[in-house]
Write a structure and sequence with these properties.
The chain is of the alpha+beta class. Among the domains are: 9-142 and 181-218, BirA Bifunctional Protein, domain 2 (2-Layer Sandwich), CATH 3.30.930; 367-477, no CATH class. Helices cover 52% and strands 14% of the residues. The chain is built from 13 helices and 11 strands. The chain has helices spanning 19-29, 55-66, 101-116, 183-186, 188-204, 223-236, 248-251, 267-321, 326-380, 383-398, 408-421, 427-437, 446-466; strands spanning 9-16, 47-48, 80-87, 121-127, 134-139, 142-145, 148-159, 165-174, 177-180, 255-257, 263-264. Strands 1-3-5-4-2 form a 5-stranded antiparallel β-sheet, sandwiched between helices. It has a two-stranded antiparallel ribbon with strand order 6-9. Strands 7-8 form a two-stranded antiparallel sheet. A hairpin with a 5-residue loop joins strand 10 and strand 11 (263-264). Helix 1 (19-29) packs antiparallel against helix 2 (55-66), helix 3 (101-116) crosses helix 5 and helix 11 (408-421) runs antiparallel to helix 12. The longest helix has 55 residues, at 267-321.
Length: 479
């Protein structure tokens, strides 16, 4: 029995009755579906200790093990067992405890191999992307029975007084078999309790863990609700109020009026003052208690909602799988995967179109904003910017202000030509004005802008060094 300060082992087993249920479980294990309590940035830390590393590979491994059976499983046979092994978060070194999760999981796997035989363990996954380390093990519940002698009624020579053929009980050899039987391992409360006891004794004690309370009626708290509970507790985990200490000063009668005729408080005044002091001292603790009570109520309602959701999910899943063979369920899962892939492709394509449309609309809006701003900028601008604005307004006027019909490359080149030859301004300032003001240059990238300005500066240095005049065919004037 766990006592205060001791951490219990956690081992749970779930029966997966169809290949479809095994695939659904595998999708969670290998994060093929969104897993709220798992950190995607830590997913690379997860480990597989068998060759199986996906839900489809799990289904194939289960079927491969079933192929070795000598007895045909019944339609309601459990196809696989899923073991979950862990401990309290604070028991592990990662949570400040003493348990080395890898050593604990290695010993747990060895215990399962001894119980089920190594060849029947088809997948082993160590999950380190959650707050608490978990070990998930998939076991095909195979029972192997050797040849044995059994008592059988067999025909014997002669007949009895009634004329019936004589029969005797004889030892007859019964051939061995390999069959599925989850009931052999986990059927009923007694066997499940025995698993808890044996696992704690063989594995848990080696790592300082103990068996949970035997016969406990405590309800299982889902992983998701546990994390929600931790989040709520963290919200309350500010500076906890200290335990109130009442000094003699608080209890000693206080002086109400000083002087020769002064007086101390009477019993009613003293009672009022002391009660007020006590109330002030304990109010932080009372407030925290109310918060904790509200948080606990929220967690309990959350657990109920999660339990209902889980049951509803099982019922919904069974609508599509009941009456189907394992092979048909696998095909159904493959079809669903194909639909998911196609839906994602369509969604990605739609998102790309939306992003392209939004970017195009943003460029059009910016171009129109630049057009609308030209008259005001005309009054405030100077230098190369003013030269470009004059050319831009003239070009717009020629096409009734339809900026899409303007040849902005030619407009830029004409403006820079005038700036450099007539006003002795630099090519760099001319191109900066174009990039900042031209409606036709809103889609120029930062790298394209940098290249063009580098070319303009190089041309300016050449002109300054050699005294060379402006050349209309200079490459820096390309639009």
């Amino acid at each position: 029995m766990a006592s205060h300060g001791e951490h219990p082992v956690i081992i749970r087993v779930e029966k997966l009755k169809t290949i479809g249920f095994a695939i659904a479980s595998g999708r969670h294990t290998w994060r093929e579906i969104p897993t709220n309590n798992a950190d995607p940035e830590r997913r690379h830390l997860n480990q597989d200790w068998r060759q199986v590393a996906s839900s489809n590979q799990l289904a194939a491994a289960i079927k491969s093990r079933h192929a070795a059976l000598t007895e045909e499983p019944s339609p309601d046979s459990v196809v696989c067992l899923e073991y979950l092994i862990t401990a309290n978060h604070y028991a592990f070194r990662l949570g400040g405890g003493l348990v080395d999760h890898e050593a604990y999981f290695r010993d747990s796997l060895a215990w399962l191999e001894a119980k089920h035989c190594k060849e029947n363990i088809v997948a082993v996954n160590v999950q380190l992307d959650e707050l608490t380390p978990h070990l998930v093990v998939y076991v095909v519940p195979v029972v192997t029975e050797a040849d044995k002698l059994v008592n059988r009624s067999v025909i014997a020579p002669g007949r009895d007084i009634n004329g019936k053929q004589n029969r005797v009980v004889a030892k007859v050899k019964k051939a061995g078999s390999i069959r599925l039987s989850a009931a052999h391992f986990v059927d009923g409360p007694a066997k499940l309790s025995q698993i808890q006891t044996e696992f704690a004794a063989v594995v848990g004690t080696k790592h300082g863990l103990v068996r949970g309370v035997e016969g406990s009626q405590a309800n299982h708290v889902t992983t998701k609700s546990w994390y929600e509970k931790q989040r709520l507790l963290k919200e309350l985990a500010g500076e906890l109020p200290s335990i109130p200490v009442f000094s003699d000063e608080l209890l000693r009668p206080a002086v109400v009026e000083k002087g020769f005729f002064g007086r101390t408080e009477n019993s009613e005044e003293r009672r009022t003052r002391v009660n007020a002091g006590i109330k002030k001292a304990v109010s932080p603790a009372l407030a925290l208690a109310e918060q904790a009570k509200a948080a606990q109520a929220k967690v309990e309602s959350l657990e109920i909602a999660l339990a209902h959701s889980r049951e509803a999910s099982k019922e919904l899943y069974s609508i599509y799988t009941d009456g189907l063979s394992n092979e048909q369920q696998t095909k159904l899962a493959d079809i669903a995967d194909a639909y998911r892939i196609e839906n994602k492709r369509i969604a990605d394509a739609d998102a790309a179109v939306r992003a392209e449309t939004e970017a195009s609309n943003a460029k059009l809006a910016e171009a129109q904003r630049r057009v609308d701003a030209l008259p005001l900028r005309r009054k405030l601008a100077s230098g190369a910017a003013q030269t470009f604005i004059e050319h831009a307004i003239a070009a717009l006027k020629a096409v009734q202000n339809l900026w899409q019909r303007v040849d902005w490359g030619k407009t830029a080149a004409d403006a820079i030509r005038e700036s450099t030859t007539e006003h002795h301004q630099s090519h760099e300032s001319g191109w900066k004005a174009v990039f900042d003001l031209s409606p036709g240059h809103v889609d120029v990238t930062e790298s394209e802008r940098a290249i063009k300005l580098d070319q303009a500066r190089e041309l300016d240095r050449k002109i300054e060094t050699t005294g060379q005049k402006f050349r209309p065919d200079d490459p820096s004037l390309g639009s």
